[in-house]
TrEMBL record:
Biased composition (Low complexity): 14-24
Occurrences of domain BTB (ranges): 76-149
Protein name as catalogued: BTB domain-containing protein
Chain spans, region Disordered: 1-31
Organism: Phanerochaete sordida
Top-rank taxon: Eukaryota
Length: 457
């Protein structure tokens, strides 16, 4: 896909050529070619926001190209070039599934040699590597038993990476059914029972994955012999894989896979602050509201010191250095924007708690209380309890901005309170529901506390 500057240049060239149409038939041919190229850009402009590039007319590179050993077919009818490798595949296969290639094949070619007809005039594809494109071609030519093999239990990382490449390239070139198939298989593998050891999860997280209601209906039992989730190798492995899967799910708008990966990341946050930092970063990058609140809240509660992140050289995606977000003193490294959101969230949550502390949660008295009890005494009993427990050690030992933790502590104290002499049992039940509802409301609004431009909450 051409950059905005190159596209503007093409339009200016086309404009000047159009003014000289009457000069010669040769110029008319060049105008047609320019217009065709601009149409090509227009058809694929919807992919520009994803940062992906599509096939584009380009002069042959001066670097020599080699024929791919597997997918340069002798009976192929369409030559493509990815990096320095040539592929010769079947035009009819590429035109299936309503792909962008089918639109390309309908464009007039003019008097020049049609692109894709020879090694000297291939269609150039940019934006993917040779292994990625070969994985995509694999699914187009795979036999039934080969497709069945990739969906078998205990999938390994090599097969999972193949599926990721298939889904991404299929999305880019609009192979909708292939894209959906690959994403569904990935989601099924991540949720498989028992699931393969593609994540390095400790046994405690495995147990949570069995019972969590936040996950899809899977009872995943990840390998018990996987390295500890807090080791540098595990953080690098988990971080790279989770990031790839979440970006893929967001790119392709596959809600099931995205929801699954958010749940996995939520589980891991409790084991290392580095996972919370990863969740916070992905939530910002992908604008994931369900993840932003819990990630920022976790970092705010558990990061001892937050300092601006210095510029670092790019490292390999799966290397421990890439995911090292703690400095030599153990301080969490964040961007200035993230630090501002953390401070904003802390300020707002402290204000929320001050309002709650000063004003006990209101509740509606039960009808039986009005008939047989003195409502004033029932209300006073609740006010005294709230005033006492909001100043108790169980509450004060928690952070000032830990509104959720403090409300949960009060809820536990209320359960331990037993039968209060001056409070009706039905009113006690109503109060428990009110406390739980307030916890739910704060959880739901949590992402909004960490947004700079939100109204005061």
């Amino acid at each position: 896909m051409d950059s905005p500057s190159s596209t503007t240049g093409k339009r200016s060239r086309a404009s000047s050529l159009v003014s000289d149409l009457s000069d010669s038939s040769t110029k008319r041919t060049r105008v047609d070619q320019e217009i065709e190229e601009m149409l090509q850009v227009s058809q694929t402009s919807q992919l520009s926001d994803t940062g992906l590039q599509t096939y584009a007319s380009a002069e042959a590179s001066l670097e020599p190209a080699e024929r791919d050993e597997t997918y340069y077919l002798q009976d192929g009818s369409f030559v493509l070039r990815v990096q320095n490798t040539l592929f010769n595949v079947h035009r009819t296969l590429l035109a299936k599934d309503g792909s962008l290639f089918s639109s390309m094949f309908t464009l007039p070619q003019g008097d020049q040699e049609a692109e894709g007809t020879s090694d000297n005039c291939p269609v150039h594809l940019t934006g993917e590597t040779v292994p990625e494109f070969k994985n995509f071609l694999w699914v187009l030519y795979a036999l039934p038993h080969e497709l069945a093999e990739i969906t078998l239990p205990q999938i390994d990382l090599s097969r999972l990476n193949r599926l990721i490449d298939i889904a991404r390239v299929s999305f880019k070139y609009h192979f909708r059914s292939v894209e959906t198939w690959a994403l569904d298989v990935i989601n099924e593998q991540v949720n498989r029972k028992p699931a393969p050891p593609i994540f390095c999860l400790p046994s405690t997280t495995t147990a949570l994955l069995h019972t969590s209601n936040t996950l899809t209906a899977s009872a995943s039992s990840f390998a018990t012999q996987a390295p500890q989730a807090t080791s540098p190798q595990a953080i690098a492995s988990n971080g790279a894989l989770i990031s790839r899967l979440m970006r893929l799910a967001q790119l392709c708008a596959h809600e099931k896979l995205l929801y699954t990966m958010i749940s996995v990341l939520k589980m891991l946050m409790g084991h290392s602050i580095q996972y919370a930092h990863l969740a916070m970063t992905l939530a910002d990058e992908l604008d994931l509201r369900p993840l932003r609140g819990v990630a920022y809240f976790e970092v705010m509660q558990n990061a001892h010191v937050v300092v601006p992140q210095p510029r670092r050289a790019r490292a390999d995606e799966a290397s421990p250095e890439r995911w090292a977000v703690l400095d030599a003193d153990g301080r969490l490294l964040v961007t200035p924007a993230q630090k501002l959101r953390l401070l904003t969230g802390y300020h707002r949550l402290t204000l929320v708690w001050e309002r709650l502390r000063a004003t006990p949660l209101p509740f509606e008295h039960a009808s039986a209380c009005s008939a047989t009890w003195h409502q004033h005494g029932c209300t006073q009993c609740w006010l005294d309890f709230w005033k006492e427990k909001t100043r108790s050690d169980a509450v004060l030992q928690l952070g000032l901005a830990d509104v959720l933790g403090r409300l949960r502590a009060i809820s536990k104290e209320f359960v331990r309170w037993g039968s209060a002499t001056y409070m009706h049992q039905d009113c006690r039940t109503a109060v428990r529901k009110v406390i739980q509802e307030k916890i739910r409301q704060v959880e739901e609004a949590l992402p909004d506390y960490f947004v700079e431009d939100s109204a005061d909450l």
